[in-house]
Write a structure and sequence with these properties.
Radius of gyration: 23 Å
Number of strands: 9
Distance between the termini: 106 Å
Number of helices: 0
Helix content: under 10%
Order of helices and strands: EEEEEEEEE
Mean pLDDT: 87
Strand content: 35-45%
Structural class: mainly beta
Length: about 130
Amino acid sequence: RVSVLDANDKAPVFDNNGVFLVRVNETTKPPLELLIVTATDGDEENTDASSITFSLSSKDSHFLLTSTGVLTLVGELDFDAGDTRFTLVVTASDGTLSTNGTVNVLVVAENDNAPKFDNTTYRVTVS
């Protein structure tokens, strides 16, 4: 009897062609789960070669990615301070082979700032 063992010869492949998109309102309070990134591995199922873990290759203090692919907002956002868009590089690894994907986070502006006058007093002449 001859047993053939599957070699770890296939890298993980992200769903959605490796591009994920998330929209989040700037007033969203962390922590909040935003997305679960997903990938598959063509190696034999239920082996170490087909077990996938995820990590963030690009670091950003606003986000955390668990090894199971859950992307969580952990920092507050402020559209007016420049938090308008984030491009996160995520890695899917089977322990030997890996693939990168992208999560684009678009921050939606909210009407969260009251109007302000530059001066406390204004003089107007009406004729």
